[in-house]
Design a protein that fits this description.
Blueprint (H helix, E strand, L loop, with lengths): L7 E9 L4 H9 L4 H6 L3 E6 L6 E8 L7 H5 L4 E6 L5 E6 L4 E4 L12 E5 L20 H4 L1 H4 L4 E6 L12 H15 L3 H5 L2 E6 L1 H15 L6 H9 E7 L9 H7 L7 H7 L5 H13 L4 E7 L3 E6 L5 E8 L4 H4 L9 E5 L15 H20 L6 H11 L9 H11 L15 E3 L2 E3 L12
Parallel strand pairs: 7-8, 7-9, 9-10, 10-11, 11-14
Antiparallel strand pairs: 1-3, 1-5, 2-3, 4-5, 6-8, 12-13, 15-16
């Protein structure tokens, strides 16, 4: 059987909440030529908008780009609007750049989210594509895998224009400021401001994450309570190949050096190895970590150098080079403050997983589940935390020691026998760590996954 062809993914914004996949597919088909309609087999995924605008966002996956969206092929950083008759005249916005925030899947219940998980890609990256596996299936693990494995968290990606051949004049601080401005829009309610937040950063995205924590510490709670609250909300950070002390940029400089007026030169200078800007940021970051959970994934393979081919197209097809050394990727904190994970991957593939059996994904999931359990414990006294932990337990299949639902329920009740009057977690707190629910002090296992 031939492999499935790798699909192109478009984002469609502005869909009514009542719109179904079937209605959208019918609307899109009306925009196609007769020849296109014959082979049009779209894959559509609907998710809530994270911007409180009472709308839905759609992920449209197709093997061949529709003619009416040809402008997005010519200029991938542009947007395209189409007026449709979807429940009356409605303008839909199409794009491929995924700038801003995009929620990746819907929650599996009507209960409040346990936590927000936000992933930020690197320099010259793509908010969605940089996290996709390299196989023809093109699995996007933050969406395809975490929808089941982390179903009660709101997982989002953040996109920004960092294309090296664009004419942007951003500095690293500019990108951080833009990120914080957008963050205010999706974490605006009192519940969202208090909600725990896990940040994931790949390469340059990790530098934005570090600067975000530094900036959050500086905000005045009386003047800007939303951003000031970030400092308490950020409970964990996952760095993937982040150049805390800089990286090798010779090939990047060669790319932008073709145009001596390219304003990206100064930005690339900020992230070169030994950059004073990064040295200062690293010192500031270490001063504000204050017990947060840090996991650092470090690349163990060399990466292909950027090289221009005969068609004048730049790609990583050159000689193998060490883009980021282990020394530069590490924070050099004690092991109890910084978990260090050596990953058999290069600078790009370290965040691209073709299957859920990838050792890097399994490690990332283990820590994300720990963070989710930590977020449940941190919820306010007004939240029924016992119910939240019970739901986590219920998701796991019963072990040999607890084969009946009554037995499992009784064991959970026993473990919660020391709760306080504010309904906080019991002294024998239940944690979902890795693939197992663990009790302290030891007790009969409630559930485990094999």
């Amino acid at each position: 059987m031939p492999n499935a062809k790798r699909t192109l993914v478009y984002r469609i914004r502005g869909l009514p909440l009542s719109c179904t996949k079937e209605q959208l597919a019918t609307t899109l088909k009306a925009l196609l030529s007769e020849q296109e309609k014959v082979t049009f087999r779209p894959k559509i995924k609907l998710v809530p908008s994270c911007y409180h605008d009472s709308s839905q966002t759609a992920f449209l996956s197709v093997e061949t780009p529709p003619i009416f969206l040809s402008q997005l092929t010519t200029d991938p950083l542009s947007d395209w609007q189409e007026e449709t008759n979807l429940e009356g005249p409605i303008d839909l916005n199409f794009d491929r750049h995924f700038h801003g925030f995009t929620q990746l899947y819907s929650p599996d219940s009507d209960e409040p989210y346990n936590a927000d998980v936000i992933a930020i890609t690197g320099l010259d990256g793509h908010a969605f594509g940089s996290w996709r596996g390299k196989s023809d299936l093109g699995c996007m693990w933050l969406q395809d895998f975490l929808e089941r494995d982390l179903s009660r968290c709101r997982t989002l990606i953040y996109g920004y224009n960092s294309k090296l051949q664009s004419r942007g004049i951003h500095t690293m601080l500019d990108y951080c400021s833009e990120f914080l401005e957008e963050l205010k829009k999706i974490r605006s309610t009192s519940e969202e401001v208090r909600r725990s937040l896990v940040l994931i950063g790949h390469s340059f995205g990790g530098l934005i994450v570090a600067q975000t924590l530094i900036k959050a510490k500086q905000y005045d709670r009386d003047i800007n309570p939303t951003l000031a609250g970030l400092y308490d909300s950020i409970i964990a950070i996952m760095f993937f190949a982040t150049p805390h002390r800089g990286l090798l940029v010779d090939d990047i400089q060669a790319l932008i050096g073709e145009d001596p007026t390219n304003p990206r030169t100064s930005l690339v200078g900020e992230i070169r190895f030994g950059s004073q800007r990064l040295i200062d940021q690293l010192n500031d970051f270490k001063n504000v970590i204050r017990g947060r959970r840090i996991v650092n994934f470090i690349e163990m393979q060399q990466t292909r150098r950027l090289q221009k081919d005969a068609s004048a197209f730049w790609s990583r097809s050159g000689d193998l080079i060490t883009v980021l050394s282990s020394d530069s990727a590490l924070l050099h904190l004690p092991d109890h403050d910084e978990i260090k994970v050596r990953a058999e991957a290069d600078h790009s593939s370290i965040v691209k997983f073709d299957t859920k059996f990838s050792p890097i994904y399994q490690s990332a999931l283990k820590y994300l589940l720990e963070y989710e359990a930590e977020a449940v414990r941190r919820k306010s006294p007004h939240t029924n935390i016992r119910k939240e932990v019970s739901n986590i337990v219920a998701e796991c299949p019963p072990s040999q020691e607890a084969t009946s639902s009554k037995t499992r329920e009784q064991q959970f009740k026993n473990s919660c026998s020391h709760t306080n009057t504010q309904n906080s977690l019991p002294e024998t707190a239940v944690e979902r760590i890795g693939m197992t629910v663990v009790h302290d002090p030891p007790a009969a296992s409630i559930c485990s996954r094999t």
